[in-house]
Structure formats: structure tokens, C-alpha cells
Write a structure and sequence with these properties.
- The complex is a heterodimer of chains A (about 110) and B (about 120).
- With about 110 residues, chain A is an all-beta fold.
- Chain A has no helices and eleven strands.
- The radius of gyration of chain A is 14 Å and the shape is globular.
- Classes of the chains: A mainly beta (about 110), B mainly beta (about 120).
- The interface between A and B is medium-sized, with 28 and 29 residues.
Chain lengths: ~110, ~120
């Protein structure tokens, strides 16, 4: 079993839809959870990061962590064609000196149709 | 404020050759990490450099090596290239502080093709 599982999609939605992206993980010791957005031929860009369980909102984006289920989600409200990209979840293992070691999911490719 | 810049953007090498990829970290950042991203996969951690020393390494063989320079820029060297080394190589930088700091800025990557 991989440490972080993410459905690669592709996911296609109409403009204005609410998008739900999800990842599951196996290591209950993970504490820091991130979502990155990656446009084609670009590097990942940090969208959200959360610590521990709960919700965090930033504009149209909401990140949710459920540590009891080892499940994290990213919701995008009022989706726009410019949101079309690959969304990667990432986590950091709780080891000393591991701050650089982001463990990524495979990424979900999202397409928002006008 | 400049972001992370990587060079070259694309590279084609022959199996068995050696390659050096370069990264300039974002202004104010002192820590650099390197990742390999195969097509359709998430990035995989190769190693991290802080204060010119490697301070974390993923599951990559020793033919993957690196350097960090006093200006915090970095190089990734890969010897004896294999076909499976074909991937996007990403550099990420941050300002390392004790405790939490996960604001990694990624470059656009170097696309390496091994033939």
C-alpha cells in the first residue's frame, strides 16, 4: 500500500461547479498536509497547508483534514476554467530533518469546461 | 522577489552519460530540495541541502548526488544515466527554521530525456 493514495482522474466539471479532491494516507503520524496545484509544464504551486484535523478556508478553496479516517480533501467553489490543472496532495513524515521530504500523491487532473 | 529558477529547461542525454542540473533558490531561502517527477506521477523526494550539506535523502541510488553553494544555489548530478531517469526534475527552496516552515517554492523543472 502506498503511503499516499490519490485518484488520478481525469475529472471534468462545468464552470461554476463545486469540485471535491481527495487523498487517503496510511501513516497516522503525518501532521502537516498540503495541496499543490501544477499547471502543464510548470512546477507545483502551494495552495493550502493545514496542521492536524479541521478545516481551513482561503477564498474559493477549503482544505479539510480528518485524521481519524486518514483522509484529506480540497474543495473548490465556483470553479473556473483557470482552475484546470493537476492537484497534488502532499504530506510530511514526522522525522527529524524530514522537512524537505514532501510525500506526494499521484495528482488528480482537473478540467473545468466553460 | 525572484522565484526558483532552473536550467536547462530541457535536456536529451544518452544512456550511460552524466548530467548536471542547476537551481537558483528564491531570494531569502537557504534550503533546497530536489524531486523527480515521472510522467503521470507525483514528485518523489531525492534529497535536501541546508548549509551546503545534505540533510535528508529519499530512496535514490548514490549515482544521484548534489551540491549546494554559499549563495544557496544547488546542482543535481546524475551519473550513468538509465532510461528510467527520464523525468521532470524539480527544485524547491525554503527558508529553513526550527519548527514549522513548509512554504516550499518550486521551480518549473528540467525535463530530462534519456535515449
Amino acid at each position: 500500500q502506498k503511503e499516499v493514495e490519490q485518484d488520478p482522474g481525469p475529472l471534468s466539471v462545468p464552470e461554476g461547479a463545486i469540485v471535491s479532491l481527495n487523498c487517503t494516507y496510511s501513516n497516522s503520524a503525518f501532521q502537516y498536509f498540503m495541496w499543490y496545484r501544477q499547471y502543464s509544464r510548470k512546477g507545483p504551486e502551494l495552495l493550502m497547508y493545514t496542521y492536524s484535523s479541521g478545516n481551513k478556508e482561503d477564498g474559493r478553496f477549503t482544505a479539510q483534514v480528518d485524521k481519524s479516517s486518514k483522509y484529506i480533501s480540497l474543495f473548490i467553489r465556483d470553479s473556473q476554467p483557470s482552475d484546470s490543472a493537476t492537484y497534488l496532495c502532499a504530506m510530511i513524515p514526522p522525522m527529524v530533518g524530514s522537512q524537505g521530504n514532501l510525500i506526494f500523491g499521484k495528482g488528480t487532473k482537473l478540467s473545468v469546461k466553460p | 522577489e525572484t522565484g526558483v529558477t532552473q536550467s536547462p529547461t530541457h535536456l536529451i542525454k544518452t544512456r550511460g552519460q552524466q548530467v548536471t542540473l542547476r537551481c537558483s533558490s528564491q531570494s531569502g531561502h537557504n534550503t533546497v530540495s530536489w524531486y523527480q517527477q515521472a510522467l503521470g506521477q507525483g514528485p518523489q523526494f531525492i534529497f535536501q541541502y541546508y548549509r551546503e550539506e545534505e540533510n535528508g535523502r529519499g530512496n535514490f541510488p548514490p549515482r544521484f548526488s548534489g551540491l549546494q553553494f554559499p549563495n544557496y544555489s544547488s546542482e543535481l548530478n546524475v551519473n550513468a544515466l538509465e532510461l528510467d531517469d527520464s523525468a521532470l526534475y524539480l527544485c524547491a527552496s525554503t527558508q529553513f527554521r526550527t519548527g514549522t516552515n513548509y512554504g516550499y517554492t518550486f521551480g518549473s523543472g528540467t525535463r530530462l530525456t534519456v535515449v
